[in-house]
Amino acid sequence: MRAIAELFRGPVVVAASALSPADDGLFLEERAHVQAAVAKRRAEFATARILARKALAALGAPSVALVPGPDRAPVWPPGFTGSISHCTDYCAVAVARSRDVASLGLDVEDLRELDPSMHDLVLTPAERNWLRAQPAALQPMLPIVIFSAKEAYYKCQYPITRGFLDFQDVELGLAWATGTFEARVLKQGWPAAVARLDGRFLIAEGRVGCGVALAPD
User: Fold this and answer.
1) Number of compact structural domains in the chain
2) Exposure string over 153-191, b if 16+ CB within 10 A, otherwise e
């Protein structure tokens, strides 16, 4: 999915690959963090750290351990920001200097029909109405695109707010023709800097990718 780099504009470095079970590229702290996990989780964790260090090195960052914080969010070296995502047998990482990008949100999903039981959880009433008005050929895949876009938005806003949002707290305006979307928070009192953010989406190689970048102040 080389096209995933197209999700971001400006000085953002993206690295992606298939999942690898090898963990010889991990720091001791990272191995300790994931040693009790199942094999797939260890592969996701190891692949993400190796990709992240590769991408950070392209920006001149030091090679350091990338152990998640207590909230399970990635902890990046000072002066850098990034986002990690993975789906079946695939992982992607986006990083940037904080002076260039305040926060990043990246999400990748297997392209699939979202289980109908998830529609009421993921889609707001306005989104469900919008979905019914779209071409029949697109309707099966649009819910997973909306799901992924909301995930990417959430990852971007979280380092700024440290606040939690449900799917129903965010409403999406999606433009299929341009591969863009706008995420708008419905929850009252959300910080204005992240209450409305634009993003990009793409579909390639059987996957959906969504990206959101917040410009620095």
Assistant:
1) 2
2) bbbbbbbeeeeebebbbbbbebeeeebebebebeeeebe
